[in-house]
Structures are given as C-alpha cells and as structure tokens.
Amino acid sequence: MQRGWWSTRVMRREVLDFKWRHSVAYNPTDRVSKFFNIILLNQFLRTHPIGLSKRLNAEKVLQFQNSGTAKRIFQCRRFCSNNSSHVVSWQIKFWTVLVELSGTVIRVRALIILARLNINVDYKIAAAAAATSLTAVAFSVEILRNIGMFKMPFQIQAIPLCLAISFIGLLSHADPITKNFRCISSNCCDQHEWCGFWAGIGECETNKNWMNRNCQISCKKCDDTNTIVNSTTPTPVTAESAEAKKVSQPSVSTTKKPTAAPPRQMLRRGHDPLFCAEMLRLNGSERLQEMARNGAIVVFEDATSRRLLSARDMVTNNQMMGCFREQDSSDCNRNMCFHAMYRTLDGTCNNLRNPLVGAAGTTFNRILPAVYEDGIGTPISTRPGSRPSAREATRFLLSSPQLVTSSKGNMLLMPFGQFIVHDISRTSLLPADRCGSCTDIPGRCFPIKVETIDPRFGCVRPPCCLFFTRSSPLCGTGAQSKREQVNENTAFLDGSAIYSSSLPDSLRLKDSKTGMMRITFFNNHVMPPFNPHTCFGPNNCNANLDVGDNRGTLFLSLIGVHTIFLREHNRIAQQLLTLNPTWSAERIFQETRKIIGAIIQAITYKEYLPKLLGIRYNSLMGNYTGYNPNVNPSIINEFTTAAMRFGHAMITEFYERADEHGKSVPNGKIRFDQGVLRPARLLFEGGIEPVMRGHLIMEVKRPQRVTTSVTENMFGSTDLASTNVQRGRDHGLPSYNKYREFCGLKKARTFDDLSNEILDPNLRNNLHQTYKQTDHIDLYVGGLLEDPVIDGLVGPTFACLIAEQFRRLRDGDRFFYQNPEIFKPDQLAEIEKVSMSKLLCENMKGTSKVPKDAFTVMKESEAVSCSSLPSMNLSKWSTR
C-alpha cells in the first residue's frame, strides 16, 4: 500500500469513490504534530444512485482540535443531500465520534456513521476503523469490537452510501530529537527518541524500510562491535529553544568512544519487560540508579492497546448504552519500565497482578452486600412504609439553621476534604434529561417524594417530588445480578483532581513543551486555564475553569485548593527543570506529578485525617508496613455514598474573607449560595487569597447537621442532603444498624440502644418517630447524627468507615509515598517536611504568616512566619 494515499471503491448499484490526499510534512517546532503533521487536503464524494440525474452535493466540515500535546481529535461532519426535487428527499448525517491518538500509535477509538434514509426502512450503518501502524496507511475495520462499545443496532441489508473514514497520524508526546538522537561510532543511529519503543512493538518488521533507515540501533542493524557514544535525553522545549530550533537542527555528537563497550542488550532495556520486572524488586535508590544506568527510564505511558475515554466520552457512553462499560484490562508488560517509575493516569497497572484494581472506570467495592427490594436493583424504599421519604428524613432530622462550630479545626477542612474526595471518586450517573420531577422510570429515575405541606418544595397538586437520576449501573448488572455502580476516577490518592483520571483529558490540561500545567493569567492572578475572552467584567463573565475534575468549580474555596496545587506543580516543575536541564518535558511532568501526589498523601494522612478521627486515628489506621498487593484499594461504596459525604454538613451559611494580616475584611462575607459556581468572584475580587485566608480564621462547622443553604437552596431547586439519602438507597446500602455491627458497635434493637452514640434523647425520639424501626435507619442519616469521637469531628461509625477506606488506599497503593520502592530515602525525607501551611505560603500572594497547622484556627498570637516553616529541597531530585 502506497504510503500517504488511500482510495477505496464500494460498489453496490451505486459508486462511492473517495480520494484522500495527504500532505506529510515535518516541522520540528510543532509540538502537536511531533513527527508527522498529516494534513487532509481534499476529499471528493461522487455517487450515482439509480433514478437520480444529478450528483449529490457534499459539504464536509473538518475541524482539527488540539487538546494538549499528545491528543488529536478529528470531528468530521458530512451532510449529504439530494438536489433532485422529483425524488424522495433523503439525508445522511455522518459523525465521527472520538478519535484519539495515544503514544506513538494512532488509535481510532470509535467512528460512527449513521445513515438515515426516508424510505421503507431506516438504516443505521456503523463502522469503525483502528490503525496501529507506525507510518503505513493501514486500516483495519473492526466493526463488532468497536460497535460493542456503543451497542448500536447493526444491520447492513443494503449500503446505498457506505462511508468508512479514517486517517493515519503519528504522535510523540514530547518534541522529538530527529537527528542523531543516539549514535554509535560508525554513524549508526537512532534518529528518534522513541525508536526503542517502536522496535519493541514490532515496527522493525512492519515498517522495515523506514525503521531500518531511521532506527538502526533499535532494529539491530549496526555492527555488534559498535558502542554507544551519544545517548541523550531530549531537552525540554522552552521559548528560547523553540526559536533556536527554527533555525538549526541538533548537531551530531562528537563525544569520544568509551573504552568499555556496554552489553548489546542494554540498548533497548527500556522496553524489555523482564529487565523492568527485575527493577521492581529494588528499592527507590537502587531502582533509579540501575534504570538510569541502563537507559531504562521510560516517561511515556503506552495506552495504545486499549480504549481510552475522556470524562465527556463517559457521559456519551452512558447516554447511548444506559449503563457503564467497565474499563478495558491492560497488559502491564507492554510498558513495564514506565510502571516501575510512574503511575498511569487511569490507575491501571498499579497492581501488576490485577491491573484493574483501583483503576478508573471500575466498580466500587463493598463492605457489605447490596440490599435491593427485588434482590437485583430496585431500591428498597419503593415499598410503602418501609422507610420515610428521603426529604422527610432530612426535614425532621438533618436540616438545621443553627450553627455549631468546633475548635478542633478551621474551615479549610471543608474544601480540602472535598478536593480529596473528588480525587478518589466520581460516581457515574445516567442522563437526567428523561427524569422529570415525578417521573419514575424503573432503573433510571427514582424521584424523591415530597409532602404537599413541605414549606420549601411542597405543591398544590400532588404528587410532589424532587427529581433524581439513578447512578449508572455496570453493564451486565441490575438484570440478573445485583446492580453495581462505577467509579469514573482512580481510587488512588494520586492528584487526579488536578491531572484527571484519563490520558485524553490530561493532555488537554498540561503543557507538553514544558511539563507544566496550563494556566491563565488574568487580572494579575494565576488561575486554572479558561478562555479570558468570555470574561468582560464581574457581572459578565462566563469563565469555565478547566481542572482535572469537572466538579472543581463548585465553590470558591474548592477552586482555591485546586489553584494552590496547580501553582505548586508549576513551581516544582520549574525548579526541576533548572536542576535537570537535560530532562524531557514529559519527565519533568511525570516527576512533578509523582511529587505532588506524595504531598497530597502526606498532608491527608498526617494533617487532615487526624482531625477527623481524633484519638482513634492510630488505633483505626494502624502502622504502615509497606505495599500489600492483596489489599484492594478500590473505593468502598459505603464510603463514597454515605460516610465521606459528611463534608456537606460542614458547609456553613456565610464565609469570611481576610486580608494579608489575617484580619476579617469589613463587609467581606460571602453567602454560600453566592459562591457556588461563581469563579468570576475570584477573578474580580482579589483572587483566591482573601477567601482562603478567611477559611483559616473560621472555626469549622460541626458536621452533625446540615445547613438550610444546602437543604433548601442548593442550586435553587434541590436538597443535597435528601439527595445523599436517596443515593444510598439507589446504591442498595444496607441499614445503619448493619454498619454499627461491622464497626464493633452494639446492634441497636431499640432507639435507646443508640444512647452511647447519639446523646440527645430528643434526637433519638425524632429518629424513632421518623423511622419507626432501628433496622430502617439509612446509613447516611444514622452516621451523620452520631456525636463526634473524642478530639474528632465525625461519629464512631463514619470514623470506622473512613479509616477502613484510607487504610486500604495506603496499603494497597504501590505508589504510596512511604513505600520504600518509590522514593529514595533522602527524597522521602524532603517530602515529609511538606505541610499544608507551607503550600499556602508558597502559593498565595501576600501571605507572610499562617497557622503552624493549616487546619487549626489561626490566631494572631500563634501565627508563624512562612520563612520559619521547612521547605522541600528539590536538589535531591537532581541527576547531575
């Protein structure tokens, strides 16, 4: 097949002739195209259906979108219409959905062609193409494999117009060295940094001519007596270097030949799974040393062998299928040296024995089996009299306008807790468009019943309801087996709220020329990226901040936490680049991401969790004894659906803003609902700093009741607390009493048996009046109403479930920061120095004093100078 040209002819009474013309050009300064920049120049569409005298006019709109450096999306829209008025008019709409590039090999994820003819029968013709060749234009139509992803009806009785479109591209994640990347004494060279990888996946045989000419070392076309004289790491592209590259190419190295020839196999150990597997047995120091010595440090994630879905793709998937298809498994051997050093974006291959454990797009784990009314998927409260309406439970037990604070912590606990929850879990939801307020569609809609006398949501003409969409079930569950729900995020505490849990989304968020995260500088504030041209003033600003989790802009201080870690990533990345000028941009990104993940873990386990669990922290968590591959770190359904939602009860009615000296700003209070989905307030009212400093001087609200801002006015027409109760029923969570037993508490046979955990007798009486039986109490309601443990903020049942989850996340995460296999001892010592207080100092303008413990209320007499807090010495990451 001639490279760069493709033509095919489909003949069935009609002729459809496509001619694709590709212009292949290489621009070394173009970070998008990298190696090939393939431009589709022209397409001709000709067809001659019987009875038509005129040719169809074809209008093709081709939009090239670049999201990040290592991702391209081609979205093709073709609208073909018949101009002949005497023939039944018909139209065909073609959509190309989700075309992704990953690594150096193109993956055409799904290409859907919908043909609708207004005659006797509707044809839905779907086709998909996948190409995995380096440079050849090779197309493989894998219809069943790809269409199974969407469950589209597939019938080809006749194909009046059959379109199979695809394209071939080549993408490398970092600016390639395309001249003498690695050479030996006889001028036998690898011209590209990815030659070793291409050779490892068989391109030396698939594309002999090109590979033998450009990847001679990796394809073993050199004399065995030759030795390597130049093996460099590609230099990160800066503005200066990019300009320089426009003028000249890197020169051939003249480094002298070493006296001792390294073993021949060392040339490609970076892609030798056996060698990389051996490296996994070494601790951090030895592993890094050996892998560096053998040229085996691989910084690019290879995801070419499986489908990748962005967050938007997951929504589309749910809409089309009505369920969530679980993540594809991964062959960890393909990229073993990468897995030895770095996490994948979607969490696969953290556990090398079970690659999907803890990965994004997999089911939630459970402590206790699900309980459904029909044993399969019908929520148990659908039986009359079984449980009160979720709204009634909220009205009579949870909702309260009274503010009760705790001196055990400050308000920063609220957004930080929300940040880490978003990092480790996101429940996949079914589309809400079919669920009206009282629409009850089995399996999809589960409305919350509301009494007509409800002061906020009651109605004149019953029935009265709050709309509720059920969580998306895992495909194959809920029909013959118990319905299970899916976590769209990685379970690991890995910074995915910053970087996302999918490679396609991550590529949009990072700058692949520098290894830094993309930012927008607006009104003298460094913020997450957004389009500044949509923001014209405080009352006319549609800034849509782009962060790793699409819930990141829910509240002002949550945006603040995201922004602090975004700035910290770029601060560390800049220092690593200074210390290691030969590191590639991708290595800068991966090393920084690894450090940021460790910092988040250190703050969570050393500062945040002790505030929640109080004196029970050590007994509940136990000591860390190292990575245990037999521990399942997947997020527990009870944790994400009930226990960790205690944070919603930390929300208060008003929030302070403070100046550089920690003083409350006069008239600076923000009402909660005025800070929901309002990033413009940060852009035009001083940035994140006043809001975050205001959190430091406020005592945290005790999370045993839920403020009316959440139960009556959340997003204008819903009740978040009732939604939480209903979500537990949707997921089939057993009763509160079952989890008391699991956590070692006495099973409550009467409501007075709850007296040790719920001290207020009036509250126990209200609980009795609402639920009638102790075995009917919802986990979220019972757990939230418990009085907090000593020196903690949550009750014993939630403390037990939260500790259970974070213990699993610690012990079952191969990349947990204290695992001696991950960081060198001196690097770990530097990470242990980091505190949330220091992060605030480093990343908030005008901040000179903070509380020594960032999660305690800052008092002027106890505030410490930022300069007195220890800093992380990044020279421990220098390879000079």
TrEMBL record:
<protein>
    <recommendedName>
        <fullName>peroxidase</fullName>
        <ecNumber>1.11.1.7</ecNumber>
    </recommendedName>
</protein>
<dbReference type="GO" id="GO:0140825">
    <property type="term" value="F:lactoperoxidase activity"/>
</dbReference>
<feature type="compositionally biased region" description="Polar residues">
    <location>
        <begin position="248"/>
        <end position="257"/>
    </location>
</feature>
<keyword id="KW-1015">Disulfide bond</keyword>
<dbReference type="GO" id="GO:0005615">
    <property type="term" value="C:extracellular space"/>
</dbReference>
<dbReference type="GO" id="GO:0006979">
    <property type="term" value="P:response to oxidative stress"/>
</dbReference>
<dbReference type="InterPro" id="IPR003582">
    <property type="entry name" value="ShKT_dom"/>
</dbReference>
<dbReference type="Pfam" id="PF01549">
    <property type="entry name" value="ShK"/>
</dbReference>
<feature type="region of interest" description="Disordered">
    <location>
        <begin position="233"/>
        <end position="264"/>
    </location>
</feature>
<keyword id="KW-0560">Oxidoreductase</keyword>
<dbReference type="InterPro" id="IPR010255">
    <property type="entry name" value="Haem_peroxidase_sf"/>
</dbReference>
<dbReference type="InterPro" id="IPR037120">
    <property type="entry name" value="Haem_peroxidase_sf_animal"/>
</dbReference>
<dbReference type="InterPro" id="IPR019791">
    <property type="entry name" value="Haem_peroxidase_animal"/>
</dbReference>
<dbReference type="Pfam" id="PF03098">
    <property type="entry name" value="An_peroxidase"/>
</dbReference>
<keyword id="KW-0408">Iron</keyword>
<feature type="disulfide bond">
    <location>
        <begin position="188"/>
        <end position="222"/>
    </location>
</feature>
<keyword id="KW-0349">Heme</keyword>
<feature type="domain" description="ShKT">
    <location>
        <begin position="188"/>
        <end position="222"/>
    </location>
</feature>
<feature type="binding site" description="axial binding residue">
    <location>
        <position position="648"/>
    </location>
    <ligand>
        <name>heme b</name>
    </ligand>
</feature>
<keyword id="KW-0575">Peroxidase</keyword>
<dbReference type="GO" id="GO:0020037">
    <property type="term" value="F:heme binding"/>
</dbReference>
<dbReference type="GO" id="GO:0046872">
    <property type="term" value="F:metal ion binding"/>
</dbReference>
<keyword id="KW-0479">Metal-binding</keyword>
<keyword id="KW-0732">Signal</keyword>
